[in-house]
């Protein structure tokens, strides 16, 4: 599918004709937008204007620090939807300045400078920093001898500039040198295909590019032309946005302001999930044996998921429990919920022919149709399956109705599987272009399910476990990485995919702990458990075997208990990080480059990550327990052992199964909760606030939230002249402060204190809002 148009640097491919913007003929200002008319050849006399093409470029701004660029050849071609939903503001202030040679449009701190005289050229700046640009060989309208039509753009790729994102991609983390097709496929985690394709990339130079096309977009990232990022789409026009910001996080914030912020998943969803696995045999007794086995072994469990075979074979999706296996589903769900569990069930948007819903969907026009107006069907996945047409409001409501019934029965959330293999030789109810619907279908599917959960359960109680996505899908979390294998290579490729997705505007991500395909040896299971419980969401799931730890070995039980309890105690911190993700559009699990863009050593790192602002996690990807990871500058603290690690260099260690590199950033105030049994509890009650390596002149702060996401307590620490002062607001319940690694103080005001192995523990006097510690 990749589109390359050139034969080397100088020539076009044989059979391809490329029109470039050569000669700027006119610049028009219409309100807050600019339109530039360019001839596709040099115009020296009036006669040259005849029998030639003109390419039109429009510049506008949907919001501050973002500039829209739209190239058009022939504007008369009618375009059917769908189009990405954009949260733009047509009233965004713009300034336009003209000189004899240039015209400059500025939105916020971002500006575009356009050549007005002679040859076409644009340059984009954030404040005074040049980001990228395009010249007369960049934009191009292409026709082939077969009458195919494309439009492309080429933006400059600077020396040492790295490109990230483009969705959840399992290929190398830095995208330079790659061809990337934005086309959703059900291809697993081991190839260039991806379940979640997002036509947005982030540059290490501090900007993003969003190509506003839901159809196939072909990217050539420093590949076809090694100094350019090229993107092309079929048709007579291309539209993209340059997204600016002071930092990479600001760029993601602006991009998600435009395409939608992630919702806040409920606190319970951050706990441990266990599933039936996919093709295993199970009934209520099997399910209870797992759950009771977890209880007996003191393994806190929070969500139980029923995979596909909760429904009868050949009938997916009919939303009906298999009566042979689950004769009393309502009673069963109540019994499970009485054990403190939330319930998730598997669904997809496909209706097998044997399902009673198939006939109903066919008769009412709820299923996608062929070009001949028959129901589109095939036998892949489900025999004779059809596809729900979410462009039909009645079909969407029909689908939602079945979900409401399941929620009323006791189901708390849905795993929205599939949504990638969407045909293009079909007709949609609303006349949508099937080519554009291929990637966009998943947006409508997940949106419908998410809306039902919000409607029935309330805001901040809705969450999915979704596999497919496109731009905007970040609004409906959570997403997981799809069908990985039970080996270290697949564990590493899963992390790469999650980090890429995070740099594409998605806040929350998970993966199948120990791999989906095959069954991992105990070693991999235990290493993947540590990685999985230090991810935003944590699920034990597999294909043909169960994933309870005692089926691996007894030590696996201990490892799972240890990391599950650890995650519960980290929840005050993790929930604050989750709220930050919803507000700023930045991921909870972050590639190191996002937090340390000024450190070139972080630009390639894809086997470690920041979990929120303050924790560095480096999973172990081998059976020797060997860890080699990079620590940015500063005095970092090993969370488990307490030793201080001087950063600015690589660190090499060996770990047993109960630890892995988990470092706390200097100048951190880390909130550690008092409950190790579940993720959803009162974070302010009995919380312990640990202060790590607060440097002279520095400050650290933390916030505690209610389960509804409301701010309850804020604590700030400042160190000056060998004194640490704490400022506390909103604390009404007991808490302690721990000065990690400090065992001697000369004076304490406002708190009782004692020494402990971790450091000085301060117990503030009730109602005290200020504390001071002389070191």
TrEMBL record:
Keyword Ligase: no
Top enzyme category: hydrolase
Keyword set, alphabetical order: Glycosidase, Hydrolase
EC code(s) of this entry: 3.2.1.177
Family (UniProt): Belongs to the glycosyl hydrolase 31 family.
Top-level lineage group: Bacteria
NCBIfam families, sorted: PRK10658.1
Glycosyl hydrolase family 31 C-terminal domain span: 585-669
Keyword Hydrolase: yes
GO molecular function ontology, one term from the record: alpha-D-xyloside xylohydrolase
Domain Glycoside hydrolase family 31 N-terminal: 58-220
Domain Glycoside hydrolase family 31 TIM barrel: 262-576
Descriptive protein name: Alpha-D-xyloside xylohydrolase
């Amino acid at each position: 599918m990749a589109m390359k148009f050139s034969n080397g640097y100088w020539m076009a491919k044989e059979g391809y004709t490329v029109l470039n913007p050569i000669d700027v003929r006119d610049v028009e200002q219409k309100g807050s937008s600019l339109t530039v008319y360019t001839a596709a050849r040099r115009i020296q006399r009036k006669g040259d204007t005849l029998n030639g093409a003109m390419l039109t470029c429009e510049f506008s701004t949907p919001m501050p620090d973002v500039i829209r660029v739209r190239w058009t050849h022939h504007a008369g071609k009618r375009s059917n939807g769908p189009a990405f939903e954009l949260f733009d503001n047509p009233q965004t202030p713009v300034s336009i300045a003209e000189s004899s040679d240039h015209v400059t449009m500025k939105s916020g701190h971002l500006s575009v400078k356009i050549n007005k005289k002679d040859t076409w050229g644009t340059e984009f700046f954030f404040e005074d920093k040049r980001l990228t640009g395009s010249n007369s060989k960049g934009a191009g309208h292409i026709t082939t001898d077969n009458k195919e039509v494309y439009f492309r753009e080429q933006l400059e790729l600077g020396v040492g500039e790295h490109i990230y994102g483009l969705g959840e991609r399992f290929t190398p983390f830095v995208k330079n040198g790659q061809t990337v097709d934005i086309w959703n496929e059900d291809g697993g985690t081991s190839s260039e295909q991806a379940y979640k394709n997002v036509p947005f990339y982030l540059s290490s130079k501090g900007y993003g590019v969003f190509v506003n096309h839901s159809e196939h977009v072909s990217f050539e990232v420093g590949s076809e032309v090694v100094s350019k990022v090229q993107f092309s789409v079929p048709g007579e026009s291309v539209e993209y946005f340059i997204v600016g910001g002071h930092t990479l996080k600001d760029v993601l914030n602006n991009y998600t302001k435009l395409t939608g912020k992630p919702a806040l998943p409920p606190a319970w969803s951050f706990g441990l999930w266990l599933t039936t696995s996919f093709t295993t045999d199970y009934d209520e007794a099997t399910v209870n044996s797992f759950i009771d086995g977890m209880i007996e072994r003191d393994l806190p469990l929070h969500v139980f998921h029923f995979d596909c075979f909760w429904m009868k074979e050949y009938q997916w999706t009919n939303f009906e429990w298999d009566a042979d296996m689950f004769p009393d589903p309502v009673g069963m769900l109540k019994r499970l919920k009485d054990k403190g569990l939330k319930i998730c069930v598997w669904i997809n948007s496909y209706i097998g022919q044997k399902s009673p819903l198939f006939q109903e969907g066919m008769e009412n026009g709820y299923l996608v149709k062929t070009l001949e107006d028959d129901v589109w069907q095939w036998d892949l996945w489900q025999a004779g399956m059809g596809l729900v047409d979410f462009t039909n409001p009645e079909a969407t409501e029909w689908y939602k109705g079945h979900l409401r019934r399941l929620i009323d029965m006791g189901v708390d959330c849905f795993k929205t599987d599939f949504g990638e293999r969407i045909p293009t030789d079909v007709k949609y109810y609303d006349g949508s272009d099937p080519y554009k619907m291929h990637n966009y279908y998943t947006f409508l599917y997940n949106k419908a399910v998410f809306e039902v959960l919000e409607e029935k359960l309330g805001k901040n109680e809705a969450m999915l476990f979704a596999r497919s996505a496109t731009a905007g899908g970040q609004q409906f979390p959570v997403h997981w990485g799809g069908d990985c294998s039970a080996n270290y290579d697949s564990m590493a490729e899963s992390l790469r995919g999650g980090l890429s997705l995070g740099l594409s505007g998605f806040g929350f991500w998970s993966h199948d702990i120990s791999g989906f395909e095959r069954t991992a040896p105990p070693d991999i299971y235990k290493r993947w458990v540590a990685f999985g419980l230090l991810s935003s969401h944590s699920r034990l799931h597999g294909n043909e075997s169960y994933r309870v730890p005692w089926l691996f070995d007894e030590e696996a039980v201990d490892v799972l208990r240890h990391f599950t309890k650890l995650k519960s105690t980290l929840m005050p911190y993790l929930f604050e990080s989750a709220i930050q993700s919803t507000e700023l559009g930045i991921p909870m699990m972050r590639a190191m480059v996002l937090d340390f863009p000024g450190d070139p050593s972080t630009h390639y790192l894809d086997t470690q990550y920041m979990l929120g602002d303050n924790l560095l996690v480096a999973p172990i990807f081998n059976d020797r327990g060997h860890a080699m990871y990079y620590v940015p500058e500063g005095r970092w603290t090993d969370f488990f052992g307490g030793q201080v690690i001087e950063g600015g260099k690589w660190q090499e260690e060996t770990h047993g199964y109960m630890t892995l590199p988990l470092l706390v950033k200097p100048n951190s105030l880390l909130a550690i909760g008092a409950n190790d049994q579940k993720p959803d509890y009162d974070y302010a009650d009995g919380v312990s606030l640990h202060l790590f390596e607060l440097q002279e002149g520095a400050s650290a702060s933390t916030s505690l939230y209610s389960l509804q996401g409301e701010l309850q307590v804020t604590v700030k620490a400042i160190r000056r002249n060998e004194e640490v002062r704490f400022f506390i607001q909103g604390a009404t319940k007991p808490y302690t402060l721990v000065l990690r690694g400090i065992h001697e103080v000369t004076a304490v005001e406002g708190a009782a204190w004692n020494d402990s192995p971790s450091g000085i523990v301060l117990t503030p006097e009730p109602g005290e809002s200020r504390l001071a510690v002389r070191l």
